[in-house]
Structures are given as C-alpha cells and as structure tokens.
Specification:
heterodimer; A: about 525 residues; mainly alpha; two-stranded antiparallel sheet; two-stranded antiparallel ribbon; globular; B: about 700 residues
C-alpha cells in the first residue's frame, strides 16, 4: 500500500469535492448533497483501508521509520534568504497510533455530519463547499508531520468554521462566530510565535551534510538538533522554553477548551447548526489535546514532566467546573456544550499521568467523546428541528411520544455518564487508573471522580425533564425518528457499544505509540536538560 | 457433568437473559407475545442453575472453578508493567447458591408479573428490563474480579433505574429512579476509589491474585492502615447497593416501581449484592475495617427498624424492614460471623421476596391501595396470601421452625460471642433490640392488613384472592422458608449441611497485626489443626458455643414479646397505639418522618450542590465570559481611539501634507511658464541650492 498516497487522498479528496461543487449550478441541491455524501463516504472507506493496513507494532512519535503511510517530499525551497540561509519546508504526512484513531474519528464524524446537514436550506452550494474545506483542514491537522504544514491546516480549518457558524447559525451567530474566530486566532498567534522560535532553534542535516533550519516535527523532538545559540535550545539558560511551552499550550488549550478559555464553546455550540456542532465537539476539540500530545509533549519533554501537576489540575477543574455549570443550564444544547468541557477534562487528566493507562485512556476518551458527543448534538438537533425550542423545561413526557428516539437518547446519555458496556466507561476508567498511579496527582484524581457523580446528576435530570413525566399536549404532534436520523444514530450507537464491550479494537491500535510516547517522556528529559553537545 | 459443563451452564445463565432483553426490547413493539420469549429464557436459566447447584454442591463442594479470557491485553508496559485485564467467572459454593437464588426468584417474579402487570401498555418492555436485570445480577454473582464486578454493579444500577422508573409518567417514580441511581453512584465512586487502590498496588483486579498478594505481605502503600481504607472504600459500594446507612434513602423511594420488581430487586437480589460483595472481599478486610462495617450494619439495622414501626404504607414498612435486615447481614459480616451473614442473605431473599409478592397480591386486589390503615380483614378474602404472608412474617420475626430463625439466631449469637471476646456489647444489644422491633412491626402489618374489621368497605368488597400465577410463587417461597432445606435440626443450623458443607468462613489474608484476634489465616491453621473450625481461633469457637443457648432464648423471648405487643395494640386493643403516639409525639414524628434524613440531605448536600452550580454558571457567564467580552470591548475602545488617531492625526498629517503640497503647487504653478528655458533655469537653480545645502550640511 506504500505506493498509494492514502493520506494525501483522504486529506485532499474533500478539496476535489469542493472544486466540483463550485463548478456545479447553484440550484442543483441534490447533486451537491450527494456529492458531499459520496466524498465523505469514500473518506470513511479510506479510513477503513488505512485501519486495515495499519501495522499495530510500530510506535511512531519521534521516529520517522516507525510512522506509517509516510509521504515526504520537498515542498518549498528558497535559497539564500539573507541571514536565514535556505528555507526548506517539506510536505510531510504520516500517522502513528495517536493520530490514527483521530483520522478514523474525523472520517466517521464528517460523514455523519453530512447527513446532519441535509436540512440546510440556504445557500447550499456555499455551505457544502465550506464544509468540505473544513474537512480537509481537520484531516490535515491530524496527518501533518511538518509544523509549517500543520499550522497551515490549522488555519485552513478556522476560516470555513467562521462562515459556517456566522452564516448558517442561530440568532446570535455573528457574535458566536467572531468570538470563535478571534479566540482561536489568538491561540494561533501563540502557536505561530512558538513555531517560529522552534524553527530558528533547530536544524536538520540534509543528505549533503549541510544544516538547515527545520519545521520537521520529528527533528524538533531531537535534542541534538538544537543549535547551541538557538533561542529555544535546551542549552539556553533563560526560561524561554517554558514560555514557548506555555504559548503552545495556551494555543491548544483554547481549542480543548480548557478553563478559563472555554467560554467561546457554549456560544459557538448554541448558535452553530447541528452538523457544525457535531463537527465542533466531535473533532475540533480533539485538535487541542492532539496538539499538546503531538507537539508540546515530545518537543518539550523536560517541561512536560515539570508541569503535569498543573495539567492535571486544569483537567480536574474542567471536569468539576464543567459538570457543575452543566447542572445549572436551562438550554439543552448549552448543557451538552458544558458536558463537553467536563469530558475533555478527563482527556487532560489522562495525559497528565504520563503512563500508558492514562495516555491510552486520554486518546480513547478523545475518540469516545467524539462519538458520544456527536450523538448528543444530533439528539439536540432532532428535537430542535421539531419543536424549535431547546428549553429543558419546555418539554416532558416525550418518551411516549417518541419512544425510539428516547431509546437512543438513553444509550447516549448513559454512555456520557460512563456506564459500563458503553465506550465512555473504558476511557474514563483508564484515565483514572493511570492518573491515580502517579503519586503527585493522586489527590486530584480522587477529587475528579466526583465528576462521574455530577455527570449522572445532570444527565439523568435532563432525561427526566425532557422525556419522563406527562406529555405536554403541545408536543403531541412530534414524530419519531426519520430514516436519515436512524442513519446518523445507528452507526454511532454501534461504535459506542462495540468499544464498550471490546475496547481492544482501539486500544491495540494506539498501544505501541502510547508506549513509545511514555518511554520517550520518561527518558528524553535528561537529553533535553543535559548537555549532549 | 464435568467442570466444563458447569462453566457452560453458568455462562448460559449469564448470557441468556441478555439475549432475552435484546430480543424482547427490539421485537416487543411488533409482537404482542414477545414476553413469552423472555419467560422461556428465564425458565431455562433456572433449570441450568438448578443443575449447576446440584452438581457443584453434590459432587464438587470443595472445588473452585475458574474460567477466564483475555479482554484487554496491552502487554508489558513502561512504568505499569504487565497490563492484562481478563474477564472471567469463578464458581464456588457461594456462587452457585446465589445463582440458584437469583434465577429462582427471578423466574417466580416473571410468572407472577404475567398476572400482576396484565394490561400494562409497556408489558413487553417490562419483561425485557427483567431480562437485563437478571443478566447484570448474574454477572455480579459469577465474576472473578473486582473490576468486572463494578461493571455489572453499574449495570444492575441501570436496570434498577429503568424498573423503578417504569411508570415514568408519575413524577414520583422518575424522581425515585433518578435518586436511586445517583445515591448508588455515591457509593460507587467510593468503590471505584477502592478499585484504583487495588490497581495501583497489585496491578490486577482478580480476587484470588489480590488475596495471594496480601497474604504474602504486599499491602497498599505498605501499611495496614491503607489496607483498612481500601477495604472500606470497596465497602462503600455495598453501602450504596445494599442501602446501608447513610445511603439508605433511595430504597424506600424505590418502592415506586412495580411491586414484583421490589420483590426481585429491592428485597431479594440486587440489594443483597452489597452483602455478597463484602462476603467476596471478606478475607482482605482488616479488624478495623470490619469493626466500622459492623457499626454501619448496626446503624442500618436499628434506624430503619425504628422507622418501620410507624409507617402506614405496606411497601414502605417492608422497605425499611429490608434495610434493617440487610443491616443484620452486614453486622454479621462485621463481627466476623461470615457464614451466618451469608446464610441470612439466602433465607431473607426467600421470605422477603415472599413478603413483597404477598403485598403485591394485596395491592393488586385492593386496586392499588397501599395504606394499611385502609385495609383489614383481608384474611377471609385472600386465604393463600394470608397464610403465606404469616409464614414469611414469622420467618422474619425469628420464630423456630423457620429459616429466618436459624439465620437470625446465628447472627445474634455472633454478636453475642463478639461481646464475650472483645467486651463490645453494643452490637449484641442493637441486634436483640432490632429483633424485637422486627417482630412487632411485622405483626402490626399482618394484623392491620389481614385481621380485624375492614376499614375501607368499598375496596374490601371488591377484594379477591389473586390468580394462581401469583399465589403459586408465594407457596413456593413459603415452602423455602421452612428450616428443613438448610438443616435437620430446627434450632441449630451449625451442624446442618448448609453451614457445615456448603458455606464456610474463608481464612483471612490480613496480616496478623491488623485482624481480629480471633481470626485465623492459612499460616497458623496448622497450630490449631485439632480444632474443627479452622477459620476461627479456639476461643472464638468456644465463645460462639457459649453464646448459642443464651442467644436462642433471649431472641425467642424478645420475638415473642414483640409479637405479643403487636397483638395487644392492634388485635385485642388492650393498648391504644394512637394514645401512645400522641404521648410520645416528638418521638413518633421523628420515626414517622424517617428521622428527617431526606430533608437533611436536601437542605445540605443537594442544596449546596445546586447553589454551587448556579453560582458557577453565573460566574462563568458574568466573570469568565465577562473578562473575554470586556477584553473585546477594551480592544474595541482602543481601536476606536487609534482609529480616531489614524483618521485625525496620522491621516490628518498626510492630508495636511497633501494640502500644503497643494498650496505649494498653486504657488509653484505660477512658475510653470511652459517654456523649456525657464525649466532649465529652474533645475540649475535648484541644483545649485541642493549642492550648496549638501556641502554645508556635510561640513556642519
């Protein structure tokens, strides 16, 4: 399979779709939608092919040889740019066990989100063109191994998101879109600064023996590549590396979103159309934690080791704070948005453990949160489409009116609560087992377990308020699920149950890479803080 | 039947109800008779577990059968070492007895429900839920590791949630189901913390491996203290599930569920899971842990018993009685009387399921009236229900010839022996006191329901005996409440087959320094090998022997006294209950209002959490987001300022410059004469000036 550029295909297929759509006449709704569905469907198939040919034994992380489906060639080459010397940037794609689950997640979620976009009414052409552009941006972030390329994909994703919320959103869409845009852009600026700093600090040795500055992520993970006088060199006695770490961390934390940078999320979710909420919660939030795992952790292993307590602390705050805020919400969609804040806290807590159980739990939680929250937002969308309200107190007794819908809601809610047998339980358990193993964050872990109690509280209360009790006669005309809604919910339900019963499907995929990462973080702090030059 | 077949039959008992659930829930809407599938499945499960019971107890009483498969195997990991989680079943005598009890009561409840739930719009759904409950309960019973137990523990919580809230149109029912789940989760969080402690210490969840490690001296954080804590954290799960004080508040509310469900889940099986958990981890509990467990058990036996004295809802009385009896079991385990604790779990399962099904029969015939003050005289109308109800009542009250007498007497003897050995008599005092109260409130219930005059004549007129589908289960359970199934000697269970052959106290693995002095581990069994009971020291056996007779007579006397008092009050009216109640008004109110514990929780924990959540939501919206929006506003203000600066100052300068240039242009235009010579002159003139300026500047 090495000769087929699978990663380029899965990343740029949506762009091809987008170009085709732009050539289509405006009123040809059916073709536009079908084309998008076909593109995202093929993406799912490509994802399965990738999964099928993925070698579970290879670790990735810092070693190019153990990355898979690698595509690498010189992309930009400008010679003699004043004192910078030659600028060489690679087109460098590849995946390991950290990114592979997220590729699958992105493919599935985008496909489901296409179905969720079916009832978009206005400017269909523009919507689906932007949707596909967004798709490319997301995929690109997860496959890029060159920092420059990563950054470009990161920014590509931002623009369509802004328009998708700002044009097709709810009543306060402009506010929400601008807030999202500026917040993320602020994060991007931090990332950009750190990226340039890293670029100017590390060199890569070319085949002819010459050294050039590099954006290659894997080269940036090697302490020996840093020049002695580079500003972010481990030899630099100033604490600039700490600041660079923090800049990157804040840039990614905004995306997670980590307290206190999370307030764009409820607004964005409430205003975004269902499909965009699904993508936002299902995929975009994972970019934050992915970025930390891919960039912060292996490029700054010595600082990572110093700051795990803080990462765990903010994870705990997210868990508890998000859950308590969710408990007080009166809007269904806002409640789910806050539950995302809480559930992403588990990812951070797991990452902070720096051991296999915790990090596996974190990556698995990214995947599981993606699927479960996608279900939850679809569920909100279904009821909003019918009732045009999301007030938790406006409903009651829908269980008898929409029994099948209620069945799916129950599965999704209990998955979010972390009921065993459903996927959320496994990842939360792994996170807790891993985090509890680390002495310094043990207390934080114990406090965090309160999150699973609060989670049960707000979810069951919501279930009761909307579905149980007497039916409000106002809603006696609501209909149960349509075929399209079945098509969205059933695949996600199958994934949620399958990973709950047999989590090895995902755990085995990520295990080698997680172990490589853990080992790397265990050993490299010495090389980074020592003096190997 | 070989070991493999036992495993196969057990796995069938586990998974068949799951199949029943899935099939019934999916096809139940389409096919009206889908519930028959679930009933057929559970009947087969009963047959399977009966055969397992007979083979295991008959031929392999001392074998432990384990079967497992790798579930998550991550191999040898950095930091954590070997990380392989397996799912598996472990079949010992406890398991097969529980397997039989669960499947029998579940089957009886299935048949009973066919009549009881007749006409319910979600009839099939109900049976599906019974299926998933049976599956989860079987999982708890069969598992060989603590994580898997936790998994099924939560699943049982789910099925309990679904069944309590089965009539979710009622607000009270949906409230009760939510409360049950959340209160249980409080206990589960503790249990999960215990599981984390286990994992961090032993890197395994398998019971036997953990026990082996402890007995070879590996302790959590290397201390007895943390072993105690670990045990108590795991016990938190039992506090929730077995509705022990202070988490007992969900069980009375859970009576909102259909009555057969109360019989199956909230009396006989699920609530006993906590006791089963304590029995499973019994060997790792230190003396301190057991003592605290005994305290919890004693409080849970006592407090609900005092509440049951004054309740008027037939199911509420039984619910509080259930908590109280579960407290007995926990108390028994806490004072080291392992076998009797488990024995009481079994006997109680039968007679309490019977009591609930009997009350269901009454409620069914009284058109869903549950207030015993509106009943009376029903014995004439419902003879079978009446007779079986009395049998169950004397069993729970501890009258000889019943199973309840045997097990309760054993527990009381255990607390008595504990007093003899340690000087802690409080457990014995509570135990005997509760025995008396139990006898009293049970006969209060019997008399008010079945004896005397009918107090609601309209409902009484329409009352009738329930159909055979409901009464046959009652008769079966009444039969099982007789002593003969457990021992040949009606006053002493010690020599009976149940205790001498089937259920033996396991040897503790706790370090000697941390356990009750009368407990023995494998290591020092040899020293006292002459003793028959190798699990307890000689002194304990002697104490128990001494305790037996006094306990028998005392408990008989107290039970008789309790029953007599009930008759004096309610049957013969020699004493006036209302008068007593009004003379002891504060006490009566305290009991009638359930010690105000719910009100206390509502006013403290719940109110605090809700207030905190509202505050944080406000904080989030106003402060955190306020800062974000404030930053935006300030930025906008500055941008307006810089915008103004740009427009008026920067651009102003540019414009001024342009203006000035324009003015100059106007002036200079005069110089434009249109003649080449003039330009040449001008250029030269300018050049001269420029050169002059430059040279001067250079010099300057």
């Amino acid at each position: 399979m090495q000769q087929v550029p699978l990663l380029s295909l899965i990343t740029f297929l949506p762009i091809i779709g987008m170009i085709l759509i732009l050539f289509l006449p405006k009123n040809n709704e059916k073709v536009i939608k079908s084309l998008t569905l076909a593109v995202t469907g093929i993406q799912v198939l490509l994802g399965i092919v990738i999964w099928r040919f993925y070698d579970y034994s290879l670790g990735g992380i810092y070693n190019q040889a153990s990355f898979q489906f690698v595509e690498k060639f010189r992309w930009i080459e400008i010679s003699s740019v004043s004192w910078l010397g030659t600028i060489k940037i690679d087109y460098f794609l590849g995946i390991d066990g950290i990114s592979a689950p997220l590729i699958l997640l992105t493919a599935v979620i985008t496909f489901i989100a296409t179905l969720a976009s079916w009832n978009i009414k206005t400017s269909i052409k523009g919507y689906f063109a932007l949707f596909l552009l967004l798709d490319t941006g997301m995929m690109g972030v997860f496959v890029a191994l060159d920092f420059f390329l990563f950054y470009i994909f990161w920014e590509i994703m931002l623009l369509p998101m802004y328009f998708l919320i700002g044009i097709w959103g709810g009543p306060r869409k402009e506010y929400a879109a601008i807030k999202f845009f500026i917040y993320t852009l602020l994060g991007s600026v931090f990332i950009l600064l750190a990226m340039i700093g890293l670029y100017l600090s590390a060199t890569e040795t070319l085949a002819d023996g010459s050294k050039v500055f590099t954006f290659n992520m894997l080269q940036l993970m090697n302490a020996e590549n840093y020049t002695a006088d580079g500003i972010l060199s481990p030899l630099n006695p100033s604490n600039l590396r700490l600041w660079a770490f923090l800049a990157l961390f804040v840039g990614f934390a905004i995306k997670i979103p980590m307290f206190p940078f999370h307030t764009w999320l409820p607004d964005a979710h409430v205003e975004a159309p269902t499909a965009i909420s699904v993508i936002l919660a299902g995929v975009l939030l994972k970019m934050g934690t992915y970025g930390i795992l891919r960039i912060n952790y292996p490029m700054f292993p010595e600082i990572t080791n110093q700051l795990v307590w803080w990462i765990a602390l903010f994870g705990m705050i997210n868990i508890i704070y998000g859950a308590l805020c969710a408990l007080a919400q009166k809007d269904f969609k806002k409640l789910i948005a806050y539950s995302s804040v809480s559930h992403m806290g588990f990812v951070m807590l797991g990452m902070a453990s720096l051991n296999t159980a915790g990090v596996s739990g974190a990556v698995l939680q990214m995947f599981n949160h993606g699927t479960i929250t996608a279900m939850l937002f679809i569920i909100v969308g279904i009821i909003y489409d019918r009732a045009h309200t999301r007030g938790l107190d406006d409903f009651g007794g829908l269980a008898n009116q929409m029994p099948v819908y209620t069945g799916f809601v129950t599965i999704a809610f209990f998955a979010a609560i972390g009921l065993p047998g459903l996927s959320g339980f496994i990842s939360e358990t792994f996170v807790f087992l891993g985090a509890f193993h680390v002495e310094s964050i043990r207390l934080i872990t114990v406090i965090s377990t309160l999150g699973i109690l609060l989670g049960a509280g707000y979810m069951l209360w919501t279930l009761q308020r909307i579905f149980l009790g007497q039916l409000n006669p106002k809603w006696s005309a609501l209909e149960d699920l349509t075929a399209r809604e079945y098509a969205m919910l059933i695949p996600l339900t199958i994934i949620v149950i399958a990973l709950g019963v047999y989590p090895s499907l995902m755990l085995d995929l990520m295990n080698s890479s997680v172990n490589t990462m853990v080992n790397f973080l265990l050993k490299s702090p010495e090389t980074f803080s020592g003096l190997p030059f | 039947m070989s070991e493999n077949q036992i495993i196969l039959f057990s796995l069938f008992s586990l998974f068949a109800p799951l199949l029943g659930f899935v099939v019934t829930v999916i096809l139940g809407k389409r096919f009206k008779f889908m519930y028959l599938f679930e009933v057929a499945v559970i009947t087969l499960v009963l047959l399977a577990s009966i055969s397992v019971l007979f083979v295991k107890l008959g031929y392999l009483p001392d074998t432990k059968i384990v079967s497992e498969f790798a579930w998550i195997s991550l191999g040898n990991l950095p930091i954590l070492g070997d990380f392989n989680l397996s799912l598996g079943i472990m079949i010992d005598n406890l398991t097969v007895i529980m397997l039989f009890v669960v499947s029998l009561i579940s089957t009886l409840v299935h048949y009973y429900s066919i009549a009881y739930m007749k006409g319910d719009p979600r009839f099939n759904r109900y049976f599906a839920y019974l299926g998933i409950f049976t599956f989860s309960m079987m999982g708890i019973v069969l598992t060989h590791n603590i994580l898997m137990m936790y998994i099924f523990w939560e699943l049982v919580g789910l099925s309990s949630y679904l069944l309590i809230g089965f009539w979710y149109e009622k607000k009270s029912a949906s409230d009760a189901s939510k409360k049950a789940f959340i209160v249980n989760r409080i206990g589960d969080v503790g249990m999960f913390a215990g599981i984390m402690m286990i994992f961090v210490t032993y890197h395994t969840f398998t019971f036997d491996t953990i026990f082996e490690n402890i007995s070879s001296g590996v302790l959590p954080f290397n201390s007895d203290f943390w072993l105690t804590i670990t045990g108590l954290l795991l016990f938190c799960g039992a506090i929730g599930k077995s509705a022990q004080f202070p988490l007992h508040v969900w069980l009375p509310d859970a009576m909102e569920g259909p009555t057969p469900v109360s019989a199956l889940i909230h009396a006989a099986t699920m609530v006993a899971a906590g006791v089963y958990l304590v029995a499973r981890i019994f060997v790792l509990l230190t003396g301190d842990a057991l003592f605290i467990i005994a305290v919890v058990g004693a409080l849970s036996a006592l407090i609900p018993a005092t509440i049951a004295l004054t309740q008027n809802d037939i199911k509420k009385v039984l619910a509080y009685s259930t908590i109280s009896q579960l407290g007995y079991m926990i108390l028994a385990l806490g004072v080291g009387s392992f076998a009797y604790g488990f024995f009481h779990l079994i006997t109680h399962a039968f007679f309490k399921a019977g009591l609930f099904l009997g009350s269901g029969s009454v409620i069914h015939s009284m058109h869903h009236e549950q207030d015993i003050q509106k009943m009376g005289a029903l014995r004439k109308k419902m003879p079978i229900t009446y007779i079986t109800f009395v049998i169950f009542s004397i069993a729970i009250a501890g009258v000889p010839l019943t199973s309840g007498f045997l097990s309760k007497d054993g527990i009381l003897a255990g607390t008595y022996a504990f007093g003899l050995l340690t000087g802690q008599w409080i457990f014995a005092i509570v135990g005997f006191l509760v025995a008396m109260m139990t006898a009293f409130y049970m006969f209060r219930l019997v008399i008010l329901t079945f004896h005397g005059e009918a107090r609601d004549h309209h409902k009484f007129e329409h009352a009738h005996e329930s159909p055979l589908l409901m009464t046959v289960p009652l008769m079966i359970l009444a039969t099982l409440s007789v002593f003969i199934f457990y021992t040949a000697n009606p006053v002493d269970a010690e020599g009976g087959w149940f205790l001498s052959k089937w259920v033996k106290t396991p040897t503790t693995v706790v370090p000697e320094s941390a356990r009750y002095s009368f407990m023995v581990s494998d290591a020092n069994i040899e020293e006292i090998a002459h003793s028959e009971k190798i699990v307890h020291s000689v002194s304990y056996s002697e104490a128990l022997h001494h305790a037996h007779m006094p306990a028998v007579f005392l408990s008989l006397f107290l039970a008789g006294l309790g029953i007599l008092t009930a008759f004096l009050f309610y049957q013969w009216k020699k004493l006036n209950a209302d008068k007593l109640a009004s003379s002891l008004k504060p006490l009566y109110n305290f009991s009638y209002n359930k010690w105000y514990i719910d009100e206390f929780y509502d006013a403290t924990f719940l109110a605090f959490t809700m207030a905190l959540s509202r505050f944080l939501a406000w904080f989030d919206q106003t402060i955190v987001d306020g800062i974000v929006n404030g930053t935006a506003t300030i930025t906008r203000f500055f941008s307006r300022f810089t915008g103004g600066f740009d427009t008026y100052v920067v651009d102003g300068l540019v414009n001024l410059f342009a203006y000035v240039s324009g003015m100059f242009g106007l002036i200079l235009r005069k110089l434009q004469l249109g003649k080449v010579q003039a330009y040449v002159v001008l250029v030269i003139f300018s050049l001269v000036i420029l050169v002059f300026l430059f040279t001067n500047l250079q010099i300057g």
